[in-house]
Amino acid sequence: MPAARRTPTGTxxxxxxxxxxxxxxLQAAARACLRQxxxxxxxxxxxxxxxxxxxxxxxYHFGSVDGLLQAVARTDAERRALLYAERLAGVxxxxxxxSVGHQIHQVEFAEGNTAVLAQLVAGAASSPELGAAVxxxxxxxxxxxxDALARVLADTPLGAVVPLADxxxxxxxxxxxxxxxxxxxxxxxxxxxxxxxxxxxxGLVDLLLHPPT
Amino acid sequence: MPAARRTPTGTxxxxxxxxxxxxxxLQAAARACLRQxxxxxxxxxxxxxxxxxxxxxxxYHFGSVDGLLQAVARTDAERRALLYAERLAGVxxxxxxxSVGHQIHQVEFAEGNTAVLAQLVAGAASSPELGAAVxxxxxxxxxxxxDALARVLADTPLGAVVPLADxxxxxxxxxxxxxxxxxxxxxxxxxxxxxxxxxxxxGLVDLLLHPPT
DNA sequence: GTCTATATTTAGATAGAC
DNA sequence: GTCTATCTAAATATAGAC
Lengths: 213, 213
Fold this sequence. Notes:
Two copies of one chain form a homodimer.
Chain A: H1 15-37, H2 44-51, H3 56-62, H4 65-88, H5 94-111, H6 113-123, H7 128-153, H8 157-161, H9 164-184, H10 189-209
Helix pairs in contact in A: 1-2, 1-3, 1-4, 1-6, 3-4, 4-7, 5-10, 6-7, 6-9, 7-9
Chain B binds a DNA duplex through helix 1, helix 2 and helix 3.
């Protein structure tokens, strides 16, 4: 229990303050549950266990388990959009883009955010409402990648040959798939190796696209 | 009900014949359930509905719902290994490889096999046994792609720079991720566009790797 | 807002008739 | 092998005390 605070109403703390904290804890618990047990292992009781919370709070604050998952999807999409926009802003070359991708990957994978997203996407198959919530987040993601690609490949032959929207979509899909694959094997070293290779190849492609006279 | 057949025992049909057919129908129903409802919507009763079968048959033939899903994973892995080995055998160039990939994609996506696999992989998070069953199938997949890549990129600089195992792993992950993404949006045209671009790029890379003197 | 208790539904699994 | 009936456990969701 956090320390009580004085409020204008005279109660120990405002309803909105306390409720907001509980809602945050519920979302955090839902993320932990999705990460460890997957969408198939999610239930109000399982989530409550992960956050040492009361099961009934799920329904009071979010109406249903699905409602809580939708909230997680929307909150994460917002956070992801901010993080990616900030990091991708200064990208000028393909090598830069791969480098930023590597950085984002390390943060997001370490925190398990991509695993959560992958499980939510899988869960979208059994809930149209959850599907809608997830879709918004994916679009924000692919749009940001697409904009970065547009800057990097502008005025190059590759930009004319390849539809950027498709590449962005493929990149987002690849991250999702890698996270799912990582769940079935031990992984961990594989992704770093992959990014090292991408770094080398992207450097070569940059040279091809922008020859140093 | 299929037509009864005479058997040595004098019964209408042998136990093994009938049992095998029911097991097949249960697996088919489980696939349909995974495709339409996702791993979160799977239950013995839901599966039974999809195949117009009795719920108790799941437990008689496979011991548990998880057992049935494991059987689906292993059966699909076998089928996939055969299909891929056959198609990939004659691949000599990167453009060939992309073309075969496109063909396989069209068949597998149309039948929903990749969607089933994606849901099984997501479900592996809540069942180590299912995870083990799925992992075998993924390894067979990535190994076949890796062998094809080794043939295509043999004696080229790219083969030396890029660990083939990682690329194969990434390709398998990409297919999984694309299928999951396709579940949340309308998709359908996106993949064809992506393969068209890949076809163009792979042709260029082939030219770079094997210049026509 | 949070807790306990509970009503209701659904899922996993088994026993026994056929 | 397949079916009906049923037991048990777990899940969703709500009511009411605090």
